[in-house]
Amino acid sequence: MRVAVLSPELELTLEDRDRPDPGPDDVLVRMRSIGICGSDVHYYEHGRIGDYVVDSPLILGHESAGEVVAVGENVDDGRVGERVTLEPGVPCRRCEHCARGEYNLCADVTFMATPPDDGAFAEYVAWPADFAYTLPDNVSMDEGALVEPLSVGIHVARRADIDVGDSVLVTGSGPIGLLVMEAVRAAGATDVIVSDVVPEKLALAEERGADLTVDVTEHDLQTAVTEATDGRGVDVVVEASGAPPAVQGAFDAVQRGGSVVLVGLAPDGEVPLDTNEIIDNELDVFGSFRYRNTYPAALDLLADGAVDVEGIIDFDAAIDDVDAAFQRAQEPETVKGMIRLDSE
Ligand SMILES: NC(=O)c1ccc[n+]([C@@H]2O[C@H](COP(=O)([O-])OP(=O)(O)OC[C@H]3O[C@@H](n4cnc5c(N)ncnc54)[C@H](O)[C@@H]3O)[C@@H](O)[C@H]2O)c1
Ligand SMILES: C[C@@H](O)[C@H](N)C(=O)O
């Protein structure tokens, strides 16, 4: 089978590998749609994210959907032919966090496309059957692949405890910010403001229903938010850019007693903050790391038409053109590229 492999020298090429055999508890999936995530692009450009270093060949990709073509001996063979999306992080299932259901905090997780664990840019992937979720008939393969970043948004909405009628500022209109917007609206938020530094990204946020967009290269964010909220500030800020000025600005845009959720990863993780401001205004500050127990909810939202994920895709490519697709994904205006294995 063909796989797209990133070498330690940062060359992304197609290789022939043996098709994997499913383990006893696995399904074997023929891949159909695989999204290109910002972290894939980061490995492609820099060869590392923090302590995770591409020091041996790595198959990228963790936003995936496909069709079950075989199952292991402990899996119901009625699953052959099912259309599925794969949840890319499989935890140890034994530690304290797994026992509590907070499996996104498991330190012994296998996460696709995170060194040394291979990902999904492959014609076939063998994966634990209970982390392969059946797609409803009206949910497409592309939507199935985008359940992964939508899950990031759903986890944010849950962390923030979004309530009906909440106002939310989302800083960053990349795939995560845009899908946070979908998730918080599905959870009941009624006023969503989105900020970014790239006009095309803001135009997309506006097209997708943002109540207000703010280009922070031209306008002061705090002033814009103050005017839009009759001087109160928003109930919740979700920081989804990782840009240090946006992290700092989040604390000025939220109302007293409000919440700030940090999901964007700052380049070195160190951002000076006014902690007295957090205390004086009694702010709740949450980190949001990946997701847990979100795939069933994401699939229900998609089946009900309660969220739109396909509208963030701006191009697709065949796996043979994976390197060109990654180059295009690097352009600042690009939101989401999708590799489709059935489009060849
Ligand atoms: N915590 C998690 O579980 C998790 C999961 C996925 C991604 N992430 C992180 O979330 C962030 C967003 O991911 P993405 O894939 O959407 O990334 P992205 O790079 O595609 O989007 C970030 C957006 O922020 C914008 N931006 C830059 N500076 C800004 C500023 N000062 N104010 C407002 N916007 C600004 C960029 O123009 C871009 O549109 C990244 O830092 C990523 O690493 C975290
Ligand atoms: C959660 C996932 O989308 C993210 N890129 C990560 O590796 O953590």
Describe the protein in words.
The chain has 344 residues and is of the alpha/beta class. It has 2 domains: 2-146 and 309-340, Medium-chain alcohol dehydrogenases, catalytic domain (Quinone Oxidoreductase, Chain A, domain 1, Alpha-Beta Complex); 153-287, 3-Layer(aba) Sandwich (Rossmann fold). Helix content is 27%, strand content 28%. The protein is built from 11 helices and 20 strands. The protein has helices at 38-46, 96-99, 141-145, 147-160, 175-186, 199-207, 221-228, 244-253, 275-280, 295-303, 322-329; strands spanning 2-6, 12-16, 26-36, 48-49, 52-53, 58-59, 63-71, 83-86, 89-90, 110-111, 124-128, 132-134, 167-171, 191-196, 212-215, 234-239, 254-262, 284-287, 313-317, 336-340. Strands 3, 7, 8, 11, 12, 19 and 20 form a 7-stranded mixed β-sheet that branches. A 6-stranded parallel β-sheet has the order 15-14-13-16-17-18, sandwiched between helices. The protein has a 3-stranded antiparallel β-sheet with strand order 2-1-6, with no helix packed on it. The model has no long low-confidence stretch (mean pLDDT 97). Threonine binds next to helix 4.
